[in-house]
Design goal:
By secondary structure, the chain is an alpha/beta fold. About 30% of the residues lie in helices and about 20% in strands. The chain folds into 2 domains: about 1-55 and about 370-390 and about 405-420, Urease, subunit C, domain 1 (Roll); about 55-360, Metal-dependent hydrolases (TIM Barrel), CATH 3.20.20.140. The strands form 5 sheets. Strands 1, 2, 3, 4, 5, 17, 18 and 19 form an 8-stranded mixed sheet that branches. The longest helix is centred in the middle third of the chain and has 17 residues, at about 210-225.
Amino acid sequence: MQVHIRKARVINPGSKYHDKVTDLLITDGIISQIATGIKCNADVVIEAKGLCASTGWVDVFADYREPGFEHKETIGSGLACAAAGGFTDVLPGPNTLPPLSTKSIIQFVLQQAAGNVVVLHPIGAATQNTEGKDLAEMMDMRAHGAVAFSDGWKPVQSTGLMLKALEYVKAFGGVIIQLPLDASLAGGGLMNEGVMSTSLGMAGIPALAETIMLHRDIELVRYTGSRLHVTGITTAESVEMMRKAKAAGLSVTCSVTPYHLALTDEALSGYSSDYKVSPPLRTEADRQALIAGVKDGTIDCIASHHRPQEWDAKTKEFEYAADGMAVQEIAFGILWDVLKDYITPERLVDMLTTIPRDIFGLDIPEIKKGNKAVLTLFTTTGHNTLAANKIQSLSRNNPFIGKELSGKVLGIINQNQVYLNN
């Protein structure tokens, strides 16, 4: 099969073609030619105004719910979301049933994803069954395909156990992923603690629930010399803490979600459970601090925190509604809508490609003749709207449906396959 990509701006700083407008010819999954004005009769021709081609994007934290919660999302539907969103690689979290805490479950999800245009890299559980009591067999899971370890939506609360986890993965250069939330401080909270929670009469989750956990884990990294990735920071103080930890030379990295960059707790004024997420949406001052963290490099990469929920889980009293947004397939539009006035496309691509691959030890592809084609095709001009009848996810807990967002993902090329959005 041949794919002819016409007049694309290459965004790949490691390539000699970076920032050049050129044609690319893909033959049986290999970049066979890079030149202007290629003449051929390819099976697929891709051309669009403002077309950009970068190496494939990586989502460092998503929730595909299989096994155990297939009514919310299967691995198949989740990977379809990823492809539509421009992601060639995804790290799914461990909070399935049973959890991804043994090599057999790791092997199961890899088998389910085999042959897909999107490559799945599972995050194994840090503790047995994500119960936070005893360490899981992380080395065994790593040998069978796990690329990092985390208890996902149930962050490790025990300081002693977190210390052991960090020491354990240090032996093989592994990474612990932690969602920064102290359960004892966040317990019972429904949204960010502040003016909005008071005016709405809802129990709040203080910023302290995040920062105290983050402070603890940074100090544990300082003590162990291990590696930690913090997924989904939300507060101004957290950004500053990460900035100082990096300046001190600690092996800490962090990610932010698209919706924490785009929204604040004011979105909850209508009591819509579509905006109920964990960690919660914070204040405008926090949002601006997150944007500043993206600009100066304190925030390393993007985690969609794609968390599908079926209709029944969201359409109930706010107190009992499930957390999360299913936003993976519209992540780029949300990000570029917010960040286009602050950063270049190159910076965003770096956050979606090279940096996450480096953190989690994934291959870093290059747009070069003779290399495998691992590409994301997109535009930063114009607008795009996610229509309800175009959604790939099994769930619809996405408050951005029907909203006009900037730029557009055209598709991906990976694994000798092509996925194009309509």
